[in-house]
DNA sequence: TTGTGTTTTATTGCCTCC
DNA sequence: GGAGGCAATAAAACACAA
């Protein structure tokens, strides 16, 4: 796949398309041949390889007339019919075996290479869309969690105020009634002890949960295939207890992961075909309905950041008992 | 018409797998 | 080592506002 690669001219929709050979040297900005007159011959205006028919003999290449007749062909878009068939094929299976590629190319009047390129680009678009959807879902989950967290803090604050107020009233009453307040004093002490016990238990419980969560995250981060960071979304979304809003039936794609691995759920880039992803799969152009909905993909860094964030947030939430700042690292989302 | 942003097609280089 | 995949990128094609 180096220089001397093929370029396919899709002119002439369907049969009779010309096959071009690129003679560019190296990559973008690579060598450029010029013929008299300063017109780029082997190399487009900006140094890219010029395209000429693939089945051109070396002699032909040396004929100057040839270049006068064979101006570089422009890149052509596929026809709607071709795209439609490719989309349907992608929907069935987003990987392309050689036989299928050849068959598709034959049906569409394209070169196999074009079909392969189309699938490659289509997979890239699919992945981008998935990332966007995953981000939206996680953000929604986070918003719900934060709202829940804020509500709990308020509740906590209100209840504490109530306890303080009632305790004070009891003490006042105790003072008014003198010695008769022994029982009340005992009750007050009980209330305080109970409160303390509840707080300690709660703190211990949450610390344990956080620790477990942390260990899980670290495991994932360190053992993911190829160093991939994988977020255990179940754990992430479940540990906080506030993410019930998340539809657990919606899968996410985290490369290198186990449960949510793209390969598992989407056929190892086999895509939306054999899971419920397929149900919602359409072309991305009609995005409203969510073409590639269902499976998700996160790059390692994102997963790691998300894991760290959620773990940090959970920790913050559970361990810091104050009604604190409530200032979560929002930059994470922006 | 033109400038600008977006989408699509294609290339390159690197990586992994067999 | 070859085949195929992916990320990054270039550039043509297209859409659209001014």
TrEMBL record:
One of its GO terms (biological process) is positive regulation of DNA-templated transcription. It is found in: Nucleus. Residues 69-129 form the Homeobox domain. The lineage of its organism: Eukaryota, Viridiplantae, Streptophyta, Embryophyta, Tracheophyta. CDD domains: homeodomain (cd00086). This is Homeobox-leucine zipper protein. GO terms for cellular component: nucleus. PANTHER family: HOMEOBOX-LEUCINE ZIPPER PROTEIN, HOMEOBOX-LEUCINE ZIPPER PROTEIN HAT5. InterPro entries: HD (IPR001356), HDZip_class_I_plant (IPR045224), Homeobox_CS (IPR017970), Homeodomain-like_sf (IPR009057), HTH_motif (IPR000047), Leu_zip_homeo (IPR003106). Residues 128-176 form a coiled coil. Its main location: nucleus. Transmembrane segments: none annotated. GO terms for molecular function: DNA-binding transcription factor activity, RNA polymerase II-specific; identical protein binding; sequence-specific DNA binding. The keyword Ion transport does not apply. Residues 71-130 bind DNA.
